[in-house]
Amino acid sequence: TLNVVCWSSCTTCDSTPPPPVMHTITFRVDMSQQSGFTTPEVNGTFNNWCGSCFPMSDADGDNIWEGTTSLATGDYEYKFSNDNWSGQESLTPGSFCTITAGAFTNRYLMLSSDTVLPIVCWGSCSACQEPQPVAVEFVVDVSSQTFNQHVSVAGSFNNFCLS
């Protein structure tokens, strides 16, 4: 005599499945090269692409925004957005951290243990690279001007200094 089981199952119909194995995961994104946002968020298959449901924080002010949550073992798609989808990162199809389905390219994650994801630059699979200095030559034609002073260039690059 065999035990009674539910159709297409190995357990009885009145048994409840075991709870999913949960893991703590920390998402991290470097926003140092972005402006015009208030709060980055993590949106994905795990929260139905909710918008502002998973806001990140930058407690130490270093422009590395973090968010920690618990997810069950599994595969997930996600991406970073900001201010309830007012902005979202644009990811390159075929990048090592992405998956493309139809018109959508998202980050891809296979979760099987507690994980702290590496810091990535917004819109990239890698860490942000420091901007490299470049030589700039300013040329101003003052041949039609008459003045007894020198010409100066001021801007954010020299703290608007005119000397």
Question: Unreliable segments (pLDDT under 50, ≥5 consecutive)?
Answer: none
Helix content: under 10%
- Structural class call reads mainly beta
Q: Which percent range describes the beta-strand content?
A: 25-35%
Mean of residue pLDDT?
91
Radius of gyration, in angstroms, nearest whole number:
26 Å
Number of strands: 9
Number of helices, where a helix is a run of at least 4 consecutive DSSP H or I residues: 0
Largest beta-sheet characterization? 5 strands, antiparallel
The N- and C-terminal alpha carbons lie at a distance of 97 Å
Morphology call:
elongated
The topology string of helices and strands comes to: EEEEEEEEE
Fold topology:
Layout lengths: L21 E9 L9 E5 L19 E9 L1 E9 L4 E2 L9 E4 L2 E8 L3 E2 L3 E2 L42
Parallel strand pairs: 1-8, 1-9
Antiparallel strand pairs: 1-3, 2-4, 4-5, 4-7, 6-7
In short:
The chain has 163 residues and is mainly β. The protein has strands at 22-30, 40-44, 64-72, 74-82, 87-88, 98-101, 104-111, 115-116, 120-121.
Describe the structure.
With 163 residues, this protein is mainly β. The strands form two sheets. Strands 2, 4, 5, 6 and 7 form a five-stranded antiparallel beta sheet that branches. Strands 1, 3, 8 and 9 form a four-stranded mixed beta sheet that branches. Strand 6 and strand 7 form a beta hairpin. The model has no long low-confidence stretch (mean pLDDT 91).
